[in-house]
Specification:
heterodimer, A: alpha/beta, D-Maltodextrin-Binding Protein, domain 2, 5-stranded mixed beta sheet, 9 helices, B: alpha+beta, BirA Bifunctional Protein, domain 2, 3 domains, 3-stranded antiparallel beta sheet, 19% strand
Chain lengths: 208, 381
């Protein structure tokens, strides 16, 4: 039986709907309870619900055989996992944003830019590639607040519709990359549970 | 924080059952190695940094813990053991008849990014078979690896076989540059067939649609005869085709030895390319979410230290084997089941030790026991 880690929150409902279309439907009664482990109808697999950023960890360690999380999370986690499918869900962008006044302003290459983000590695890579010295301020949420209060000059965050940014007087300066939900698979499970894993990949590929 | 309570990141202390289990795993593995006439080589904990850079490449050597010798030379804690073996064979074993069979058991030290699960000290059990280029040598080390696992009571392991020329042939026939090869390799390694398809459309527009689809599917495949059949359906360059034939030969041989169920052929493994030159393999065990070991043919390494010589080898992770066994915990042959004979240190000390010595002469386990401590006087801590 496969254990599949599902990102709680933004992606959860869409992910479960996709799995249901692929013939792996989470048990409704269990889902409505507050259980963190929910079996699929017919018990062909079970779902565990974890914070998005933890999905790569569960899968890399093999306590979950597969998982679904955004590419944003994968880029940050750099987990050693397989990534066989783009599920196309939860499309968004990882972008650099700042107050309207600074958009279009050149980075002063002598000064250190302070950037607030939930993605410290993605952020550091982006700015280092451009030779811009930065100080990364890692936050757990409400990143948009940082430039408003003067905690940072820029932010790097997920942008879905851009509404939160606009309402806070922020604008996208540059898009770092696009992100969608990915199916990831543990490297050992790929070999040890070969037929179940390839069954899962094929079933999902058929409904993406 | 006090350095009395804090332990440096990535190192571990082992005691009680955990220590016994690790020694048990090591003993079993070394027994199997010895059974196949591999002589143990005990290697230094550190050596010149340059040696490791020469052996495993500058990038790998970046992961070493480095320090400076009294004369200013750059040293490194050993990040792997094969380079040390290779250098020894190429220099000091010049006159020994070939093939040379050597095995080792020891810790290696690598500073790594968060992958490798945070550990920085790893215990490897491994061997090298040097000076024999044929398939018999490849087969021999596969059998030894399988026997180690069986000797530990692990019967549900899986070995994924691969061949570097499968990838090399494809990359060359596509005419990719260095960056393109690296990207192709990464996409295959992550088994991202959708991204692989996009990459090939862009960087190898000359290939036919059907080939591209077939190749992308193939990199998702690990399996037995059906995987080989699929590989042969995809029209391949000569080099890749030879690799497929070689893999088929190895698979047939392990099958004839009754080990077929443990072996798969994997066309989506593009690891170790800067090092391996032929067959490669990775070993997987339930209860351990990553490969527990692996190896392959590396015919170019010894040449970095002297005359070129063919070689194959593998290593298994003692940490992984012990971890998997601890999680099974069903039978625990490493635990002490035999009763301990308590010898009470009462009045006559000499008499007590005489008794203990007699028991020891009969191979009994003894524990010298003091009279029970006075509970009214707690021990100061």
């Amino acid at each position: 039986m496969l254990t599949i880690a599902i990102s709680k929150g933004r992606l959860q409902d869409e992910t479960l709907a996709l799995f249901a279309r692929a013939g792996l439907e989470a048990d409704g009664a269990e889902l409505n309870s507050r259980r963190l482990i929910v079996s699929a109808i017919g018990a062909r697999c079970r779902f565990v619900f974890v914070k998005p950023a933890d999905v790569p960890t569960y899968v890399e360690y093999g306590v979950a055989d597969a998982g679904v999380c955004g590419r944003d999370v994968l880029l940050e986690a750099r987990a050693e996992v397989h990534e066989p499918l783009d599920l196309g869900l939860g499309r968004c962008r990882i972008a650099v944003a700042g107050r309207r006044e600074v958009v279009g302003e050149d980075y002063n290459l002598l000064a250190t830019v302070r950037v607030a983000t939930k993605y410290p590695r993605v952020t550091a890579d982006y700015f280092h590639e451009r030779g811009i010295p930065i100080e990364v301020v890692t936050l757990a949420g409400s990143v948009e607040l940082a430039p408003l209060l003067g905690l940072s000059d820029r932010i790097v965050d997920l942008v879905e519709t851009g509404r939160t940014l606009r309402e806070n007087g922020l604008e996208v300066i540059d898009v770092i990359t696009e992100s969608t939900a990915r199916l990831i698979v543990n490297r050992a499970s790929f070999h040890l549970k070969r037929s179940e894993v390839s069954g899962l990949v094929t079933a999902l590929a058929g409904v993406v | 924080m006090s350095s009395l309570t804090k332990i440096p990141a990535g190192v571990q202390y082992f005691f009680d059952d955990e220590a016994r289990l690790r020694r048990h795993v090591e003993r079993r593995a070394v027994e199997v190695f010895a059974g196949w006439s591999y002589d143990e080589i005990i290697l230094p904990m550190f050596d010149y940094h340059d040696l490791f850079a020469r052996g495993m490449g500058v990038e790998q050597a970046e992961k070493t813990y480095r320090f400076v010798d009294r004369d200013g030379a750059l040293l490194a804690l050993r990040p792997e053991l094969t380079s040390l073996v290779a250098r020894t064979v190429a220099t000091r074993f010049l006159r020994r008849p070939r093939p040379i069979r050597l095995c080792y058991s020891g810790e290696v030290f690598r500073y790594d990014e968060p992958t490798e699960r945070g550990a920085r000290e790893f215990h490897q059990l491994g061997l090298e078979l040097i000076g024999q280029a044929d398939a018999a040598a490849d087969l021999e080390i596969l059998l030894v690896a399988a026997e180690v696992l069986a000797a530990l009571g692990i019967h549900d392991f899986r070995v994924a076989l691969a061949h570097v020329d499968f990838f090399n042939g494809v990359a060359t026939s596509l005419g990719l540059d260095e960056a393109g090869r690296a990207r192709l390799r990464e996409l295959i390694d992550r088994r991202s067939s959708y991204a692989l398809d996009g990459f090939l459309r862009e960087h190898a527009p000359q290939v036919e649609e059907s080939w591209r689809a077939g190749f992308c599917r193939l990199t998702q495949v690990a399996g037995k005869e059906e995987a080989l059949a699929r590989a042969r359906e995809v029209l391949l360059n000569e080099r890749s085709r030879a690799a497929v034939d070689e893999l088929a030969g190895v698979y047939e041989a392990v099958g004839a030895l009754g080990l077929g169920e443990h072996f798969d052929i994997d066309f989506g493994d593009a690891g170790g390319l800067e090092y391996y030159t032929g067959l490669t393999f990775k070993v997987y065990v339930p209860e351990w979410g990553a490969e527990i070991g692996g190896g392959g043919r590396y015919d170019n390494l010894i040449g970095s230290f002297g005359e070129p010589e063919p070689a194959v080898g593998f290593s298994l992770s003692l940490d992984g084997l012990a971890g998997a066994l601890a999680r099974r915990g069903r039978e625990a042959p490493w635990r002490e089941h035999d009763g301990v004979r308590e010898v009470v240190l009462g009045g006559d000390l000499a008499q007590a030790f005489r008794e203990a010595r007699e028991l020891r002469a009969r191979q009994k386990k003894v524990r010298m026991a003091l009279n029970p401590p006075d509970p009214s006087r707690p021990r100061a801590i």
